[in-house]
Queue: 2 jobs
Job 1
Amino acid sequence: MPWAKKIHVMQGSSEYFDLYWEEGNLLNGEPALPPSGVGRLSEITLPQWLDNYLFKIRSSSYRPDPRKFSLNLDNDLEDQLIYLGTYFPRSFAESYCVFDNLLRHSFFERLLRYKDKLRIYSLGCGCGGEVVGALQAMRDRAQYSGKIEVTGVDGNESALEIFAQVLQRMGKRQSLSLSVDTKLQIMDDTWQGLDAAPDSGYDLIICSKLINELYATSAMQGSLYLRLAQGLGHALAPEGVLYLADVSNAISLNGRQVYVPVLLNYELQQLSDQDDLVTISPWCCRAGSAHCTGQNCYTQLRVRAHHSQNRDILSKFCYRLLCRSEIAERVRPPVRYLRCNALINESALERDLTGCCPSRVFDPEHKTVDAFNLV
Ligand SMILES: C[S@@+](CC[C@H](N)C(=O)[O-])C[C@H]1O[C@@H](n2cnc3c(N)ncnc32)[C@H](O)[C@@H]1O
């Protein structure tokens, strides 16, 4: 194996990892792409109650307009109904697939099964696709039937109204004991909410597709993913999970085009031990900056949503699931020996083989392992 070096790293008394690193730029053979979504869900059809609610009861419409809906703070009710029919199902599908995957892990599945109350906080919640997706996955995969308290924060009043209504509808149609609280809040540099969360003890904190808008409008300055993770991390319950997700687009930042997934990755690699927040998914990002050699690296997950107004919507996004180190210890990566090409971007891998983690360490067989799959 002339192109790679190998060391043994002891971990505890019995387990060891073989670590390899690349010496030349020769990749001996192509990593095989695992079949999409094997072992994890990568597509979802909207449940009937939600399809009815969006397209019949709310008469929302499917009308993609990426330019207009790149910024959503000033949406009026008419815009919200287009958002509801077009982008809500994407956020639903993304978070459904992420949480379905999380709950396939026996630790989280059991954790949820024995809980009698769940507290959820969503920042920049909009109409709530990401919260509804997470709750639906909890109900479907773990049959969660305890109490649920949801707090949604956003700067748009009509979005918050829809947020409360769709969750109330979900509570009724899915027989969930669900209470909803909303807070109208414009976030700018005078707002302390990112740095000091208003409350604590949340089992799930979500921030889906807000930060790119804060950056793009210069509403807030400086390391927002990092500040958000640090600030809201304090509000997590000891066993809580933080879900940060964002779009897979470029935004203009200080006159430069910046790819949002790169920015998210770069900032979150700077979390330190004191922050006590560990990435559990995608698990190739778990090691943090000390071990990460990735430059301009990013992860991107693809999921598909199906509903009555469009049979096949492809959504590409980036995300992290983080939790406290004590919990992360219980959810170790599914590969025993860290000798893999960790897949981080299916579409890139299909094109030019750059879809694996650049900190990858090579397996002699060049086995490609899905970094989004927790089990
Ligand atoms: C793309 S939507 C995301 C909605 C939802 N979280 C999702 O994933 O579908 C972004 C949300 O951020 C909110 N937002 C953007 N800038 C904001 C600001 N400065 N203060 C408060 N909310 C803001 C918008 O009102 C909008 O609801």
Job 2
Amino acid sequence: MKRWHEAFAWLLLVASALGLRACSSLELLNETDLERAKKHFPSTTMEQLHSGRDLYARKCGACHILHPASKMTLDEWQNEITKMKRKVQLDEQDVRLIEIYLSAGARDSSIQ
Ligand code: HEC
């Protein structure tokens, strides 16, 4: 009986560890990301990039998987965000921060 309990406790531990991993599945941000974002939004700061990443994870991961930034170009993301704005409460500042975050990883529109 005790054995079974121990096994169950381990299972919970492993499950929660996997859960934590899933939460931090977005790539970490570095200087290269900042440089890439600055090509689209010249005054971008690392803080904005982090806020955008948080907002993206919180607001855009509520209903479906978080699509990787590299899935689309920034233009395509902007179209998508316009559509999603009907489904989720986002003010203009949130939208801008999410765009900033996505711009760092977005597919390059010159490479189709
Ligand atoms: C309230 C739920 C909800 C939220 C929040 C939400 N989405 Fe969506 N999203 C959907 C649904 C439902 C679909 C598929 C049907 C559609 O396009 O309306 C979708 C589709 C998408 C697609 C298209 C996927 C594909 O493969 O074509 C993208 C990209 C996307 N969402 C991005 C976002 C982004 C970015 C945000 C945050 C700004 C966001 N979503 C927030 C519900 C949501």
